[in-house]
Amino acid sequence: MRRETKLMHYGRNTAGPGPANPPVVRASTILHDSVAAYRDTKRRRESDDSVLSYGRRGTTTAHVLADAVRDLEGGDASFLFPTGVAALAGAISAFAGAGDHLLIVDTVFPATRSFCESQLRRNGVEIDYIPWDTIDLSPWITAKTKAVMVESPASQTFEVMDLPALCRSATAKGITVIADNTYGSGWLYHPLELGCDVSVIAGTKYLSGHADVMMGVASARGEACAPLRAVVHASGQTLAPDEAYACLRGMRTLGLRLERHHESGLLLADYFAKRPEVSEVLHPGLTGHPGHEIWRRDASGCNGLLSVRFRPGFALEAFLDRLQIFSIGSSWGGFESLAMPIAPDESRSFVKEESPDPMARFHIGLEHPQDLIEDLTASFAVLED
Q: Which residues are annotated as modified residue N6-(pyridoxal phosphate)lysine in the UniProt record (predicted)?
């Protein structure tokens, strides 16, 4: 069955008449008829994540969502979290503890870097950063190296890593590879199939798709499932049933939405590239973008994100404030178009020369692209007067 069809049928009860979408099941206590049944439930839940045992381990609504993401990602197990950052923190913590050494790609999501620096370092984890184009980990590995945290395309600047090559290097040394796959969201990109052990998605973004859900999910394959499962159960991570329902409902249109985001994103990237105020457009779908050929090889499309570097002296904040359709916001992946100023070089280690040029990240939503172009053009026109 093709994935577009499977997306419509995740969680469907085929035994008889029933709702098209699985219902919301709210529960904390799960009742049993006997002590023996209770003990059997506790036994089975250790090897079957779909067993209904206690609200802290999710209800059937969350179980259906977790299984849907597991299938999308091509993993052996998926675990839900209340936010994307919680999922990233849980995934990393499962493989890096006191005395261990963790490698992180320098272009990682800033909140991931913040968690690692503020929490893992003080708990005794050694951290080093690697360039985004690393394919051989040998120069960075120590006897204590346990995991490498990657993100591709990169946060804010969208450089594309050669994950198959990096994963071959990591696997040869017994190092776990954790990937932030929020950009691809299980549809455009499949890190587990490329060799990664864990793939993390902020379901707040494209999975839910409607700017009204906070959610994260970590999927794993093979031996990586057990450590991740242990952290999830020990720390009580779960997702409320209403959020699980809303995310599953939003996922039904994931393929269609990303198709529109892809088309509109490329149109707007081309528009920006032709503006005299712009010095560079960062988008993995553009020829010449760092890692573009790798992205064409490993991915099936792009989402609605792009970043723009403007020429020196450009009045960026005034430009953004004048926009009428684009709103100012720090998230992305919803139906709406967003814009925000960024300074990605500020916290990075491998920067040839920190650029003072103003930059902005845009999320191209589901509005008609011509309306978005007209909105941008009107704001540019004020500067020309």
A: 205
Is the domain of 247 the same as that of 269? no
Assess whether 283 and 174 both reside in one domain.
no
Cα-based torsion angle of the residue sequence 277, 335, 366, 368 in order, rounded to the nearest 10 degrees: -70
What distances in angstroms separate CA 30 from CA 22, 27, 42, 52, one per listed residue?
A: 18, 7, 11, 7
Closest CA to 269 of 308, 316, 227: 308
Distance CA 364, CA 292 (A): 20
* CB 208, CB 185: distance < 8 Å: no
346 and 380 assigned to the same domain:
yes
**Burial class of 99 by CB neighbour count within 10 A (0 to 12, 13 to 18, 19+):** exposed
16: CATH: 3.40.640.10
Bridging pattern class, strands 327-328 and 338-342: parallel
Each residue of 8-58: pLDDT tens digit?
999 887 777 888 888 899 999 999 999 999 999 999 998 888 899 999 999
263/222 same-domain check = no
Q: Which of 81, 141, 77, 152 is nearest to 115 (CA)?
A: 81
Domain total in the chain: 2
Q: Distance between alpha carbon 13 and the CA centroid of its chain, in Å?
A: 29
Least confident of 48-52, 145-149, 154-158: 48-52
Q: Are 156 and 361 in contact (CB under 8 A)?
A: yes
Q: Which of 201, 194, 139, 200 is nearest to 171 (CA)?
A: 194
Residues contacting residue 66 through CB under 8 Å, at least 6 positions apart: 49, 50, 58, 78, 79, 80, 217
Nearest CA among 80, 101, 107 for reference residue 91: 80
Tokens describing residue 147: 């995991």
Q: Give the number of other Cβ atoms within 10 Å of residue 350's Cβ.
A: 14
**334 with 364: CB under 8 angstroms?**
no
336: containing domain? 254-384
Residues 6+ apart with CB under 8 A from 356: 312
CA distances from 274 to 230, 231, 278, 310, 314 (A): 51, 49, 8, 12, 16
Q: Are residues 285 and 229 part of one domain?
A: no
| pTM for this predicted structure | 0.95
